[in-house]
From TrEMBL:
Pfam families: Y_phosphatase. Belongs to the protein-tyrosine phosphatase family. Non-receptor class 1 subfamily. It is found in: Endomembrane system. Keywords: Hydrolase, Membrane, Phosphoprotein, Protein phosphatase, Receptor. PROSITE patterns: TYR_PHOSPHATASE_1, TYR_PHOSPHATASE_2, TYR_PHOSPHATASE_PTP. It comes from Ascaris suum (Pig roundworm). This is protein-tyrosine-phosphatase. Gene3D superfamilies: Protein tyrosine phosphatase superfamily (3.90.190.10). Residues 297-387 are annotated as: Disordered.
Length: 401
């Protein structure tokens, strides 16, 4: 079973300290793959597009890039963004760099044309006195932003300990982007910003990241056909980590029987170069997945152990009907999960997060963050925890100046 294999393989790699060797193997296989498939970046490095790349060594492959549809004669269709589809996980992503001042309009054009309703941002605007991303979104400080023919309005903002969730309204003033008269010129976009992830590093605690992923999944928008935009500064390190963790846990939910982590990362790199930048990020991916799967396994065992025993009627004439439910805990199929309300989505991960917080206070935590999470109320759900930790701000409707 994939779950047990991933857990045991993580423990083996951890015991033997294999992370540098595994990461180097991924690098070598990726280089061979790039040469074999002749993955080029000619368009990205043309004189017209070179300045659209935040980093010279991170760009979109010619064969795997998002192409902007509505462009003028003197406007390039290039944006440093790569589509990534993972059918086994039922996931569609767009991995992209943090927008530059000159590419914010392109970013929102991509969001509009690809019909994206969820953006996951994994960095701060400024980190260690360096600008990692232009502030392309609306916030309480600047509730209305204008980028080219797009207006971005802030409708609400929740500030939590480790992330911020914003509800944005994206408005286009370009009539050519509205295909017919029945289509609205505005759309709602959820914007999640994780603020506890250092550049080139990993979060202090996998529990913090699992809580964040739980909240993102609870929106139900990761399961939609429209792609989810995921970005950090370069769009490969933190973004790759998020995508690997989410997609692997989704594949487990989909009962995929075999998952090879190294092979998965190499295949993902066909579409977005350099995905997962360091051995530490690879280790964090696997650690977070293994911890989530252990909690899932423990939760299932606990549910079985706590099931009430079936009453047996001693009378021979009594026939007990088979309810068809079986002896195990109820299982939620993906098709049913997609029909649930947003608060019910990703219940398995919510259970995992809840189980994580139920660990005894005597267990050694890996950091001060872990210690703080272990002390929290064991019966607290993710939504209640967020309600306590988050401050919500509703913003009145405002017109652009």
């Amino acid at each position: 079973m994939a779950r047990e294999f991933l857990i045991s393989k993580f423990e083996e790699n951890e015991k033997n300290k294999q992370w540098n060797a595994i990461f180097q193997s991924i690098e070598n296989l990726s280089d061979k793959q790039e040469r074999a498939l002749k993955l080029s970046t000619r368009i990205a490095h043309s004189w017209q597009n070179a300045e659209k790349n935040r980093y010279r060594n991170v760009s979109a492959y010619d064969c795997s890039r998002v192409v902007l549809k509505k462009t003028s004669d003197d406007q390039s269709d290039y944006i440093n963004a790569s589509p990534l589809s993972i059918p086994l996980a039922k996931r569609n992503y767009i991995l992209t760099q943090g927008p530059l001042p000159s590419t914010c309009a392109d970013f929102w054009q991509m969001v509009w044309e690809q019909e994206c309703t969820l953006v996951v941002m994994l960095n701060k605007v400024v980190e260690k006195n360096c600008v990692k991303c232009h502030e392309y979104f609306a916030s309480t400080q600047r509730p209305v932003r204008v980028f080219g023919t797009f207006e971005v309005h802030l409708r609400s903002e929740e500030q939590c300990e480790h992330y911020v969730m914003r509800t944005l309204e994206l408005v286009t003033t370009d009539g050519s982007l509205v295909s017919d008269s029945s289509q609205s010129a505005s759309r709602s976009v959820l914007h999640f910003q994780f603020v506890s992830w250092p550049d080139f590093g990993v979060p202090h605690c996998s529990r913090v990241f699992l809580d964040f992923l739980d909240r993102v999944r609870a929106t139900g928008r990761l399961q939609q056909l429209a792609p989810v935009v995921v970005h950090c500064s370069a769009g490969i390190g933190r973004s790759g980590t998020f995508v690997v963790v989410d997609s692997v846990l989704s594949m487990i939910d989909e009962k995929v029987e075999s998952i090879d982590m190294e092979e998965l990362v190499v295949k993902m790199r066909r579409h977005r170069m350099g995905l997962i930048q360091t051995p530490q990020q690879l280790q964090f991916c696997w650690k977070t997945i293994a911890e989530a799967l252990k909690m899932q396994r423990d939760s299932e065992r606990s549910s079985k152990a706590n099931e009430p025993s079936k009453a047996i009627d001693p009378r021979p004439t009594c026939i007990i009907a088979n309810t068809g439910r079986g002896d195990g805990p109820p299982h939620l199929e993906r098709s049913a999960a997609n029909q649930m309300t947003s608060g019910q989505h990703a219940k398995s991960l919510t259970d995992i997060s809840g189980t994580i917080r139920k660990r005894s206070s005597g267990e050694q935590c890996e950091s001060e963050e872990d210690a703080k999470y272990a002390r929290r109320d064991s019966g607290e759900s993710a939504s209640k925890k967020c309600a306590r930790d988050c401050v919500k701000v509703n913003v009145p409707v405002t017109k652009a100046a």
